From TrEMBL:
Name under which the protein is recorded: Aminoglycoside phosphotransferase domain-containing protein
PANTHER family assigned: AMINOGLYCOSIDE PHOSPHOTRANSFERASE DOMAIN-CONTAINING PROTEIN, AMINOGLYCOSIDE PHOSPHOTRANSFERASE-RELATED-RELATED
Pfam families in the record: APH
Upper lineage: Eukaryota, Fungi, Dikarya, Ascomycota, Pezizomycotina
Top-rank taxon: Eukaryota
Amino acid sequence: MATPRPTPQLHWKTDTAGLENSLAFIHWDALLQYASKTRRELDGAADCSCRLSLEYNMGGLHVVRRVDFGDGCRWLARLQLAPPTPESCQRLRSEVDTMAAVRARSRIAVPRVFAYDLGEASGVGAAFMLMEFVPGDTAMDSFGGWHVHRGETPAPFRAKFHAALADIQVEMASVRFPKIGAIVCSGGQFEIGPVPGIGGPFDTSAQYFEAWAKTARFPYREATIRPRTPAHLADEVLAAIRSFPSAVRDLARWFPFHDGPFPLIHTDLYSSNIIIDEHYNVLSVIDWEGAFVGPWELVEFNKELSIVPPALDGPLYQETESSVAARHARAEFVNTVRGMEERRQLDTRLSAVLADEEVQAFSHAFWLYGEGRIGFYDRVLGLLDRRRVPRAHPE
């Protein structure tokens, strides 16, 4: 067995007492027994005894802890932060299958998943996966963390990191399927299944957006929105928020969406989900839970280059030095992507959709709606009006 790389100093928490209290429903001993059994079955290691690291990291939906084996091998346990539900179990299965597809069909570095369980058969009490431990920190946590660089890549590494992100997005866009939906691995073959909470699979983008419109809900009610909005604009903003799903449904009836095959979309491509080393080399891309094969019109820049569409802020929008710099960085990023497409003899669909400012405004507004961003969504959709192509609505 190869000697494992030294574990760097990670920006993880160490207050395991608090961890144990908040996740009392997790049976940690059962997790260790499951890990030992899995390791023995995979490679017949002589020493399968293991323990959990004192360090851990916690996000919005998961907690991760390292599993250290007696022979120096290290795995990562990633557990959901709540007892399993049918929806959370579906998300886990979808993530495992998506990661397998990415490893098989692209050059993107993704951790290998050794095993996963929905929390019942193992007795752990939470749905979890055991996967390869990548010895690095996230780009968000590295170099002093958020409180030092506020989530921005340090200037000396910016060009290098953006080139790596471009490579990731080119590779991701090359993983394509003829339908829209979640990736499902069946009998060793990758297929497309329903999108959790929406349905499908869908043959066209129009079908996807119509189905989304039926289930979409803005996270906040009027009692929360009004105090956060200037009084003279509150009624207009509320109307725009309430009408957005139906307006997207109407958009699906006339907008000339790109045909398939459709690309894989990582819906959470933040620097907090990209693991790097001390030289800012990308080691792995993680957190594929929400990833799905989606419409080209929902492909957007990685989150480091995201810009809130000016139309979404309407009369409240103010130009800043950072927004000007971000637009220049996006233009450079598009050129980098286009160059990679040409060198690899790929089509230019990705660079074309990233260069389309109106589609990018719609894409980012679409994702912001689910996050509860208050704004003038009708004005964003208005940017697309000039592309109106009337057609018969499919029954």
